Amino acid sequence: MQTISHEQLNFLLTRRSIRKFKPVPVDMNTVKRILDVARYAPSAGNRQPWIFIVVTDKEVKDRLAKIHRWAYPLESAPLGVVVACNKDISPESYQVDCACATMYIMFAAHALGLGTVWLQTLRNIEDVQKILNLPSNYVPIAMLAIGYPDEQPTAKSRKELKDIAFLNKYGAALQP
Predict the structure, then answer these.
(1) In a domain, 26, yes or no
(2) HSE-up of residue 60 (Cα within 13 Å, Cβ side)
(3) 114 part of a folded domain
(4) How far apart are CA 153 and CA 151, in angstroms?
(5) Segments forming the whole domain that contains residue 58
(6) Residues 6 or more apart in contact with residue 49 via CB below 8 angstroms
(7) With 0-12 CB in 10 A as exposed, 13-18 as middle and 19+ as buried, what is 44?
(8) In this structure, which of 12, 81, 86, 160 has its CB flanked by the most CB atoms within 10 Å?
(9) Is this structure's pTM higher than 0.85?
(10) What pLDDT does residue 2 have?
(11) Residue pLDDT, tens place only, 55-89
(12) In contact, 15 and 106? CB cutoff 8 Å
């Protein structure tokens, strides 16, 4: 059995949402490496219903950055990635499947020294579809702003484990 090192756990604990980026382009080979990792995300029935749209064009990024007030990090990010899922391939699980792929992108980017922030799209599906010329059966699940971090946010507080983890049924405390 392989043991997980403290270094690997620390890697997961040190990922942060980055909203400020250095004006440094991200090499397309690095982007391809990140997306190659995302292909290995779990999906129901291994259907892999996702597609990844890499956005580097300033005009397109700016339009996406204006779909809602919290999408502004795309304006300064060197690139964005939109994760869209074909709802016909996985009608029951496409949102979860693409959420997993989105996290794989975020972790791969973090491993390569890049920062990301997840920008929601589910209230603006039609706007994103129109901007990216997505067919109606492709639902944009997430937009990510990606680049080299120009900030170092500290960890935000988290709920206590005793308040969110239970043994066998709700309300039953986990015993040490």
Answers:
(1) yes
(2) 18
(3) yes
(4) 6
(5) 6-151
(6) 43, 85, 86, 87, 89, 90, 94, 97, 98
(7) middle
(8) 81
(9) yes
(10) 64
(11) 999 999 999 999 999 999 999 999 999 999 999 99
(12) yes
Query: Do the beta carbons of residue 49 and residue 86 sit within 8 Å?
Result: yes
Considering only CA atoms, which of 91, 97, 101, 102 is closest in space to residue 137? 91
CA 148 to each of CA 22, 72, 81: distance values in angstroms, whole numbers, following the listed order = 6, 16, 15
Q: What is the pLDDT of residue 5?
A: 87
Residue 21: strand pairing partners: 149
Q: Residue for token digits 């949102």?
A: 95
Q: How many domains does the chain have?
A: 1
Pairing of strands 79-86, 50-55: antiparallel
Within-domain flag for 68: yes
Q: What CATH number does residue 54 fall under?
A: 3.40.109.10
Single-letter residue type at 145: A
User: What is the rounded distance in angstroms from the CA atom of residue 66 to the CA atom of residue 61?
Assistant: 9
Low-confidence ranges of the chain (pLDDT < 50): none
**Residue 1 has what pLDDT?**
54
Burial of 112 from C-beta contacts in 10 A (0-12 / 13-18 / 19+): middle
The answer to the question of residue 161 being in a domain is no
pLDDT of residue 19: 97
| 98 CB-side CA count, 13 A | 29
